[in-house]
Every structure is written in C-alpha cells, then in structure tokens.
Specification:
By secondary structure, the chain is an alpha+beta fold. It is 23% helix and 32% strand.
Length: 146
C-alpha cells in the first residue's frame, strides 16, 4: 500500500513538472511587450516573502524588499516548484523542493549563472503593484539587424 502511494506521488509530481514545462514552452520566444497588469495592493505584499500572481497568463513570483520590488518566473526550471513559496534571504530565493537558489533581481541561478528564469518589470502606482514582462530580443533577429 505504501509503495502504491509512493508511485502515485511520483506520477503526480511528474504531471506537475510536465505542466510547468509546457507552460514555459508556450511563452518561449515571445517578442511582444505586455502591458503592466495590476497584481495587488502594496499592503498585500509582506516584506521578504514571495507571492505568486498571474501576469499575462503565467505565474510570476513577486518579492518586496523594503522599498525595492522584484519579480521572476514562479516556476523553478528543475521540477516546477513555486519559487514564491521559497525562503528569501538577501536578494536570493531558495526553491522549496530542492534548494536551487535564484537571484530575485534578474532570475539568475546562483549555482550556474548561465541559467536564468525570466525576470519581470515591477512598478508602484499609488497603492497598486503592477508587473509586466521584460521584452526579450531573439539572438537570430539581432544577427539579422547588423
């Protein structure tokens, strides 16, 4: 019986991981700049605690550090855990599943800086917190412009 529960747990985990990877693939290579979206009120966000919010159809982890605000993709690229649920220390968030650490300023994986999760632009307008995607430039298009 315990073995069955373990197998079901692994299957469930694999389904969660695949869903996260599918969602990430949907947004890979998008070139449009999204509009800022209101994701909550300033008072809704605790200092040094991540919060997952939807932005343009995907989940984004928003972090408040005093008067500084940061946002990165909520899905850890390793297994799809929510980075908003991770421990925040200094300018790093640690994935709650396997302890991968990401810089909340730019999404860099701290153990391998060549790997990054997407980062997002955050602005405060009165009491509203707004987030939007940062435009990505495709390397192939850069080569064609020269």
């Amino acid at each position: 019986m315990a073995f069955w529960a373990l197998v079901v747990g692994e299957i469930t985990l694999e389904c969660v991981r695949q869903t996260a990877l599918d969602a990430r693939q949907t947004y890979k290579g998008r070139m449009t700049v999204s509009e800022f979206e209101v994701v909550g009120k300033v008072a809704d966000f605790e200092d040094n605690v991540g919060q997952a919010v939807p932005v343009d159809g995907r989940m984004v982890a928003v972090f408040r550090k005093g008067d500084q605000w940061y946002a990165i993709d909520d899905l850890c690229p390793h297994m799809g855990a929510s980075l908003a649920e991770g421990h925040v220390e200094d300018h790093s968030v640690t994935c709650p599943w396997h302890a991968w650490r990401f810089c909340i300023k730019d999404g860099t994986w701290e153990d391998n800086p060549r790997v990054k999760v997407d980062s997002f632009e955050v602005k405060i307008d009165g009491d509203d917190v707004l987030v939007r995607e940062i435009p990505k430039v495709d390397a192939k298009e850069d080569e064609n412009e020269d």
